[in-house]
Hints:
The structure is a single chain. This protein is α/β, with parallel strands linked by helices. It is about 55% helix and about 15% strand. It has one domain: Alpha-Beta Barrel (TIM Barrel). It has helices spanning about 10-20, 30-35, 40-50, 65-75, 90-100, 110-120, 130-135, 140-155, 170-175, 185-195, 195-215, and strands at about 1-5, 25, 55, 80-85, 105-110, 125-130, 160, 180-185. It has an 8-stranded parallel barrel with strand order 1-2-3-4-5-6-7-8, surrounded by 7 helices. α4 (about 65-75) crosses α5 (about 90-100) and α8 packs parallel to α9 (about 170-175). The longest helix is centred in the last third of the chain and has 18 residues, at about 195-215.
Amino acid sequence: xxxxxxxGDTTEIKEANDWGLIxxxxxxxxxxxxxxxxxxxxITEITxxxxxxxxxxxxxxxxxxxxxxxxxxxxxxxxxxxxxPLIPEGLKAVKRFTAEGIKTNVTLCFNANQALxxxxxxxxxxxxxVGRLDDISQDGLQLIRDIRLIYDNYGFDTEILTASARGxxxxxxxxKIGSDVITAPFSVIKxxxxxxxxxxxxxxxxxxxxxxxxL
Length: 215
Ligand code: E4P
């Protein structure tokens, strides 16, 4: 499973990238607003840190405008993936991008029918938001299972990009289901690495070693 970091914070991206674990980056307008930088500058900085797919989202609402905006985003760097909302105009734009070889990430997916349509439009990635479904007492991970089944039934090569991950449980289950990618905030990536028994075990090993180190 590929790991993308879901943030507009370049300090976090650098640190996670230094661990050698990051395959790509996702951003969205809210994360960009949080970063508080000019969007082109932000995305350019990210492309200089991570050599992998970087999702940059359009904010237009018609296919023609999304197409224009997405073309501009894609011109910034070869690794840009144009992120498009899962609405009819968005899917229309995805068809055009796909025909021109521009990669797309269809975002704000909340049911498997939407994911099927995004794949038919030729999306490179589909982003189902597991955490936001859990937030309204629905089973976010069941959506990943359903999409995996449907995509495998028909041999779609759209990659499932599990998004809105809230913790290590989403991470592990997405991997078990066979999600192609997970995107997670840095806080979640750090939690995934950590285990209290690793920390206490290491502490004990180092203390014991001191007893014999100078023999
Ligand atoms: C996906 O690409 C989105 O940026 C993101 O995962 C949304 O997560 P949130 O529900 O934590 O805002």
